[in-house]
Structure formats: structure tokens, C-alpha cells
Amino acid sequence: YIKRPKLLCLDDPEETKLLPALLLGEITILERLKVQHHPNIARYFGCTTRRGRITGIVLEKYEVILQYRFEDDPRRLDIQGCMKQIQEGIEHLHSLGLAHNDLNPMNIGFTKDDVPVIFDFGSCREFGEPLISAGTPGWVDEDCVESAAQNDIAVLARLESSMINTQ
């Protein structure tokens, strides 16, 4: 799967200036995670380039995202096991001094073996760094202004509740 930069911000000159920094920030995090891989973190393969510029981020493609897991896959999901693995992925990030800062059902995929995998590291930053992008409305506290483990921990219970209510 190739993740391409979102070009919707090109109408706003201020956001356009941020695009290269956001892309480079995500790639820097992914390069770090590639060296210290965890089975519940998306597998990153590198970047695509054109004329010396980065045009995309190459990641493993996952079968389905959590947002649609119950609609697209009739198999029953072990919610406790799934949450344990998501938490292990988050704990791995935290052990590296990183917070995801945008954990939500659209940023968790499943392998063909139903292993949950966290992806989309566009908001991921080292603890204490200011957040450039605010995460997903309704999932991340809109008042969050800096990267912190608590930003991820606060979402875990909501994720579990969402899965229980959907299954």
C-alpha cells in the first residue's frame, strides 16, 4: 500500500507549508519503528520518489480496518485479545518515548490472521513535542497540544467500548 500526502490542504497556504514537515516527520518515525519493529505496528518498507522528491510512504496493506471489521468480516473477534495486542503496540511506542496521538478505529488494521496492527503515524511524536495535527475529532481530546502517553491511554477504553457495542 502506498500512502500519499493529502493534497486537500493546498487551498490553504499555511497548511501547504506544513505538508513537507508532516511527511518527513512521519517517515522519520517509521524509519525508527522499522529498526525496532513490533508485530502490532504497521510494517514500513520505505518511500516512493519522483524527481528527487518523496511521493509516498510504502506500508504493508491490511485486510480490513477496525472501523469496518464487524461489517466486512463475519468472524467473531476476540475483543480482549485484540485490545491486549493494541495495548502492546502502544506500550512499544511509549517505550521508545513516542505517542501515537491519533489512535482510533480508522488507524487500526487487521492482518489475514486477525492480528491488529496500528498504522498512520502522521501525528506520532516524541513525548513533549508540540502537536501539529490535532488527531481525529471525536477520538482525540481537542485540547491536546503536545505529544503524551496519556493521549493514547485515554483512547484505549473507548476503543474497547466501541468494539463491544459494534459486535
Q: Can you describe this structure in just a few lines?
A:
By secondary structure, the protein is an alpha+beta fold. It has helices at 13-35, 66-72, 79-95, 149-166, and strands at residues 2-3, 44-50, 53-59, 64-65, 98-99, 108-110, 116-118, 125-126. The model has no long low-confidence stretch (mean pLDDT 90).
How would you describe this structure to a colleague?
The chain is an alpha+beta fold and 167 residues long. It has one domain: Orthogonal Bundle (Transferase(Phosphotransferase), domain 1), CATH 1.10.510.10. It is built from 4 helices and 8 strands. A 3-stranded antiparallel beta sheet has the order 1-3-2, with helices on one face. The protein has a 3-stranded antiparallel beta sheet with strand order 4-6-7. The mean pLDDT is 90.
Order of secondary-structure elements: EHEEEHHEEEEH
Report mean pLDDT, rounded to a whole number: 90
What overall geometry do the principal axes of the alpha carbons give?
globular
Would you give the CATH topology?
Transferase(Phosphotransferase), domain 1
Q: What's the domain count?
A: 1
Count of beta strands: 8
Spatial strand arrangement across the major sheet: 1-3-2
Fraction of residues in β-strands: 15-25%
Overall CATH architecture: Orthogonal Bundle
Uncertain segments of ≥5 residues (pLDDT<50)? none
Question: What's the quaternary structure here?
Answer: single chain
Instruction: Tell me the distance between the termini.
Output: 28 Å
CATH class placement: Mainly Alpha
Q: Helix amount, in percent?
A: 25-40%
Largest sheet: 3 strands, antiparallel
The CATH superfamily turns out to be Transferase(Phosphotransferase) domain 1
Query: Which structural class best describes the helix and strand composition?
Result: alpha+beta
Q: Roughly how many Å is the radius of gyration?
A: 16 Å
Total number of helices: 4
Protein name: Protein kinase domain-containing protein
Domain Protein kinase: 1-167
InterPro entries: Kinase-like_dom_sf, Prot_kinase_dom
Pfam families: Pkinase
